[in-house]
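Just curious. Protein, please.
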Amino acid sequence: MPYCDVYIGSLKDPHFSWEGGDWNGNCPRRLSPFFPPVGPAYHAFYIVVNRIKEGVYDGKQVDWGGFVARATRFEIEKLINELYTDEPLYGPESKSPHLIKQLDELKAYVRGLSTTQKYALVASEL
């Protein structure tokens, strides 16, 4: 069974090539916490992939199982709000405090990002 993750990396990662990568692990390395699970299985992964394919995000497939969008902090914050705001696992009645902690760590990481820079929003299937 594959792992389908979403995370934030650097577009300047020396092991990543936006153009001409060899499709053998050509994704930026993870800098942020993983996006915690939400909704149906791999929901966040498929949201990012579909938005890249539909042209909503400036991105593309860069590896056999990897998609990267060039995203601003504000675009990432908007995605997080869309994914988690109405999700019962993350609400006040949550019975999953470890997921709330993961989401809080992701939000704190994103708040620390520059508002003038673009980042790699990575959807990776391993």
Remarks:
- The two ends are 9 Å apart (CA to CA).
- Strands lie at 4-9, 59-63, 66-72, 118-125.
